[in-house]
Recover the amino acids of this structure.
């Protein structure tokens, strides 16, 4: 009887946690919670452009391409979510005004982790990708990367 009660209590607790912003669809394997900022993250392995990654993230019930707003968040993502050995799409762009980067989530653009020489806007690069080591590169809309990071707040 006690084990049944513990199971019910665990289910109620889990439901309460999920109601705080984590969509029910995100209960899939690979979703990780960051207690430092209260956000959920998932690496999705799927070949595609930034546009297809954006659409995929938004199709995950309130998800969006990840906004990385601090070095602590970046290190947490690399340690707990990861990208494998892949470069991935994240939610930054400067497609509204060239050189003015912003997050799809609307969070302030106050932290950057550009790779050396970036952003360089070669060929009209307006989308943000992250290398497996955590550094960033501005990329073209036609790049085809093997994955993306989804975030829920």
């Amino acid at each position: 009887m006690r084990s049944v009660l513990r199971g019910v209590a665990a289910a109620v607790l889990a439901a309460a946690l999920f109601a705080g912003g984590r969509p029910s669809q995100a209960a899939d394997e690979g979703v990780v919670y960051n207690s430092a900022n209260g956000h959920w993250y998932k690496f999705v392995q799927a070949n595609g452009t930034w546009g297809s990654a954006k659409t995929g993230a938004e199709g995950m019930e309130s998800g969006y391409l990840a906004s990385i707003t601090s070095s602590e968040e970046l290190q947490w993502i690399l340690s707990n979510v990861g990208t494998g050995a892949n470069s991935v799409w994240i939610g930054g762009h400067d497609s509204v005004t060239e050189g003015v980067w912003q997050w799809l989530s609307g969070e302030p653009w106050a932290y950057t982790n550009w790779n050396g020489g970036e952003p360089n806007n070669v060929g009209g690069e307006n989308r943000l990708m992250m290398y497996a080591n955590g550094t960033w590169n501005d990329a073209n809309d036609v790049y085809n990367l093997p994955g993306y990071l989804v975030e829920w707040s």
Observations:
- The chain is about 25% helix and 25% strand.
- The two ends are 36 Å apart (CA to CA).
- The helical segments are 2-18, 50-58, 71-80.
- The first helix runs from residue 2 to 18.
